[in-house]
Queue: 2 jobs
Job 1
Amino acid sequence: MREVFETKTDKEEVARQLRFIEEGKQIVLNYSEQEGHPLTACVVTFGCQMNARDSEKITGILANMGFHMTESEEADFVLYNTCSVRDNANQKVYGKLGVLNTYKKRNPNMKIALCGCMTQEESVVEKIQNSYPFVDLVFGTHNLYKFPEYFVYMMKRDGMFIDIWESATKIVEDLPVIRKYPFKSGVNIMFGCDKFCTYCIVPYVRGRERSREPEEIICEIEKLVSDGVKEVMLLGQNVNSYGKNLESKTKFPELLRMVEKIDGLERIRFMTPYPSDFDDDMIAVMKESKKICKHIHLPLQSGSSRILKRMNRRYTKEEFLDLALKLRRELPDVAITTDIIVGFPGETKEDIDETLDVIRKVCFDNAFTFIYSKRTGTPAASMPDQVAEENIKVWFDEVLALVQNCAKERTALLQGQIADVLVEDVNSHDASLVTGRMSNNTLVHFPGDKSLIGEIVTVKLEECKGFYYLGKQL
Ligand code: 5AD
Ligand code: SF4
């Protein structure tokens, strides 16, 4: 039998955690008086957009408790929001924890916390307990909303406090959030994943798929818009299987139509759709919409039907190509980007050639290429025919080179066009420029100052620089 999930926010729990924030505020105040300076906190995010959104929630809570947020990890409270999709992300966290330990020796009152996907792995928690005893707090992905409560608990006692849940039954949104960008925001529309691709740890660390009620999503976006947000990114591991656990069975295209109607909202993005769930209604809604951005991130993973089957991806090479080429025909100005894994167990040069063939035929606007990473507990980890490192390196370089050529070719097609650009930042290398994103996600740099941040401006794309443009505001 399927588990039953609560799809609405638990308001009582929200009120409870708000009380802990008040208590935390008092604790932070007392400490800062004792220390003679305001307490600082640093949140470091690894991984995907979901984690970025979770970090905004944690930052909102910390700032509400009176912490001064800083980018420096030599702070009074440091939290790592971790990712475990690939092993190198895990290794990076272990390395950085070693550095934090030296900071903590200088500042014994410093507190260190870990959350996110890594903490949902039993072996990680064991390792933290055994080798990193100076960590104060470890919590998981299903109980993030309890952070205020854990924080208070951590401050009142010594030793490491750990709370990891195997699954979630509740949705608790509506706690304070501080956005990295005032003008754009991620919005969780669903949590977890039911697809169980054989290489992927996400279903084990993020749990089963659970969608939020459309009314609650709309209400959250309306509030964001009244707070200055122009662009939202609807977040989920498989956004186009949204709604399966809802009584109303609202589907993703319907949700998009509801979001479209929100006055004042200018741009809608979504991440990530699953190829075989990308139906004609998705194409229809993208055609009719004035707000949905012209970008689809459609993870291919492999172009070989044999490998796709072993990956438990639910489409063949031909089905993916049919879909991608249909998207190119029906939505010609939409950028298509993808994810590709090289070195999956059993992969041969023939399989890589199939992947290269798909890349050539679709000519992706951009692609993230990953070396297969063995994740303990996933079915692929125990497949016998793991690929030799020398082969992976050669294949990876070949895939990357083709992907980059395609990306350049696609980007160059925009030369001389006029585009609406949402300005995100002052350029980090040249302060006389600002940086923004076109609807299709291409970056554009052009002369301007910080007053333009958050504005959507019209820009002429003057000079193609490979993957991005230099432009001029019109
Ligand atoms: N090894 C390499 N890449 C992986 N991804 C997920 N799991 C693994 C793994 N074990 C990639 C997929 C996915 C992206 C978010 O990360 O390409 O789409
Ligand atoms: Fe992982 Fe596959 Fe789910 Fe994506 S669809 S999160 S790759 S299991």
Job 2
Amino acid sequence: MTPSSLAASLNPGSTIGILGGGQLGRMLAQAAARIGLHAHIYCPNPEAPAFEVASAQTIATFDDREALQKFARSVDVVTFEFENIPLEAADLVSEQVPLYPNRKALEISQDRGVEKAFIKQLGLNVADWWPIDSADDLANALTQCAAPALLKTRRLGYDGKGQLALDQNSDPAQAFEHIDHQPSVLEKKISFEREISVVLVQGSPNQIDCYDLPCNLHKNGILHSSTVPSGVPEKLDQQAKDAAMKIAAALDYRGILAVEFFVKEDENAPQLIVNEFAPRVHNSGHWTLDACSCNQFENHIRAVAGWPLGATTRHSDAQMTNLLGAQVLDWFELAQHPDVVLHLYGKAGIKAGRKLGHMTKISPIGAKIQTN
Ligand code: AMP
């Protein structure tokens, strides 16, 4: 095995290193265990929900070089469960073991401006946007935008955090102050008909597959629910998959890649606009746990371990709903429903808006999902 790439498939009993210990790390570790692989979780938070289901744990910060090197020596391959891992940490571990997805995917996804330019240069649509480094930039951009818009920090924004809705009457100085003068982008607000995403898995260069597309509903910038089938016409469905595969090819990708789209009604045909991509397992793919032959977590582990990919075939219709904050207190009632699969993340403390679990309603393909 060379540090830059895996020479062969990892045998059962090998160890996958996972940077980050949230619910995505937890579900990755559970998936690894199912196929006889160990997970070693690296996370600064001692209460990280992934720790209790992993076979090894490192509690250390992402700038602790010694801890990162020791972690890298103890694993056979490294992956990550969120894209804000400092690049220096990723570089340090990848001196010793292969890192999948690669540095390029991580680096591009960490900066909204770089990400949008990258997507656009592939010939795909993004919302009109302007780089913002000052209140003056914002004042100019608001004039040019001529529509409601969103100001988003270039880095570290997720689940609607680091975002502010603006219009031409907004005060640029106040708005820039509100986001702590951070480098940002102003993005034209799209009046979309719906949101969809492609969750794709890329293994070795000739192994690539997409799950069925979910239709995603967001509330306050946070994913509320994902429904499959999405109801989008076949042609649009294929266009979205082609766009996601184009991004994967340009990134020389390995692992699960999620690409989020806005679907905008147009006079001629509906138009696809890429919102963003995530180089990791994704919330809009959680339904695959209960409705597919091989779920996104196992397929990510398979891809980074050099295994053959599992079938993405969907055997049920599904609707995944996140349980945020106090919604998780309904667990007892939800646990009584025969067609609901309940997932709780074992996080300590209930905070408004915090993802504490999810539930998936499943029904035979073609039977209408009961939403209440
Ligand atoms: P983001 O953090 O960029 O993924 O944004 C979270 C959610 O906010 C998206 O899924 C949309 O529902 C909404 N949103 C973000 N950007 C836009 C936009 N340019 N136009 C309309 N809605 C948006």
